[in-house]
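Record now logged for everyone:
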Amino acid sequence: YLHDRDNLVKHLFAAIHLTSGMPAQSEELRLLRWADTATVPRNIFIYQGKIIFIFSYNKATTISNRSYYIVRFPCPIISQSLFFYLAYIRPFTDLLARQLHTVEGSVSTNPHIFTRYDSRTGCFSTDTCLRSLQLSTKSCTIPLTIQVYRHMAIGIVKKHIQPLLQPFGPDALIEFESFLKTLAFQTGHSIKRHTQAYALEEAYPAKLQPDLIDRYYHSSLLWHSF
């Protein structure tokens, strides 16, 4: 049962990577956490009844020193599989591992999604993530790597999913932008300051308001439909 659990998680990596919109970098996804730690918050949340992944680490952060959030929505069937895994399978296999003494009983649950049942704190290596992707894409005529698939996904979007090519700014909805500009000018603010500092919902981070999450959701829906 524990080995079957590991096989499920191995397939789950590729399933999430392939179906959650524009693919994440390998380092982002393999470190996906379902539980908070003392130093790092989890990446998995529930938003309006849907599982979402929230990442604050990305390439733009290291280049510009300005962090912002990336939100990904897995497709419904993968969301359901992930829910069953986290709600039923993961707690049971963690209990089995402690009872069989494959991990110490005093060790808290591994916060990573992609990990072996007998791993205390670690997560999948880059090679394991690569094997997971290649195992799920055997019918592809060329062997895929994480980077090759990212480039392929971007190429597919450019050729077949034109709505995703519309300008995307995290500060405002495109169709709402002209209206926000008018409001911002009336109050003597830039549109960026107007959207980031005023009328924010306190339950959400300032740079991750519901409007932005909804935009990520609609982008993911286009990918799911394709």
